[in-house]
């Protein structure tokens, strides 16, 4: 009986989706043929997405739809994906992300925080130059702590974990200040929060085969019962209470002679809405957690891809080493580079951009259609449809990337003068339009300062002696977990 009910529900859901897909009022993108009812294209999309999407485009054109996880999703190729990125009145990446991971449930005190992008730009991005020295000192300290001198060759496997710890130090310093960033508890929260918060997102949405987005509603219920982020929020609140009390007391005591802390936390305390007599510590903690979520993982992930590509291709290290020797001449007596030195790392910047180009997922940057939309070619997508960008269609296109787009050519971007932070039709890692990632400069600066120190300090190679490419899970690419050998330069 139960099996009949479940099977009947699955068939009804399939018919419902197919009926919506065939709405005669809209000129929908073609639905790719599939052999298996209910699961549709899900299996082949997860097991062979690169070849599958290539064949789909060849047969069906620039825009086509797939039946994935019980729902019709539309894939948009290079000719029209800029429409998705720039038409924010019709496509919303935030809704798509919320469906994947209910961050509003995880960080429930953020309901009124509507200007997060503006806050990040004003409080962090516009002050990057002032954070330069602190960023380098923290990166150098953390590198020494987690990698060490390596007088004898040292093998580090799953470098992503190490990179996360290293990246946390400068981020924690910028967001909560020098004093709090010295606590191991704080560093652990910065490094572990994203992983713990995102655990719910790795659950395959099998319940969506029964009814579209059923998995999302179940995930919301699970998070209300057990929120893995709570422990990190409690740690932050505990330390924030002590730190905020101390700052308010010192400001009152010393007046104009008080030395103002230069960090994101102090900027929050100086907002007009901040009431020192009625402090909402949970809201402040959630604001910080939001920026931890969007900064730590992406930066650590990118840096891991780059260092894996660097160690996999030792033939380029000497050239990069010589460039960094020249750059180091601008450092002060403590080895700290001026902010402007970042612009002198042109070969390193090109290497980073090439690594990120070839490590991005095959299909990514999902958006949800907020109202019926007609593409320039006349095809239409209905409101509430999930749209994914076919990024491989951009990164493997010779007209956009130059000759041999599949090959790793680290200095191909020198001629085009395209920096690692520059968005455009041929580089989608940071999105596009006015909603492009506002923190991309911070992320790339960290990667460059870290690699400057690493290239000068160590000889590098993969433990296997081979090129270690990204690990594939469906259409997504993750950094290899292969070992890297660090050895002190003689």
From TrEMBL:
Spans traversing the lipid bilayer: none
PROSITE patterns per UniProt: CYTOCHROME_P450
Taxonomy, superkingdom: Eukaryota
GO molecular function annotation: heme binding; iron ion binding; monooxygenase activity; oxidoreductase activity, acting on paired donors, with incorporation or reduction of molecular oxygen
Keyword flag Methyltransferase: no
Residues reported to bind heme: 437
Coiled-coil annotated spans: none
Co-factor(s): heme
Signal peptide extent: 1-21
InterPro entries from the UniProt entry: Cyt_P450, Cyt_P450_CS, Cyt_P450_E_grp-IV, Cyt_P450_sf
Keywords: Heme, Iron, Metal-binding, Monooxygenase, Oxidoreductase, Signal
Family to which this protein belongs: Belongs to the cytochrome P450 family.
Protein name: Cytochrome P450
Record organism: Rhizophagus irregularis
Source taxonomy: Eukaryota, Fungi, Fungi incertae sedis, Mucoromycota, Glomeromycotina
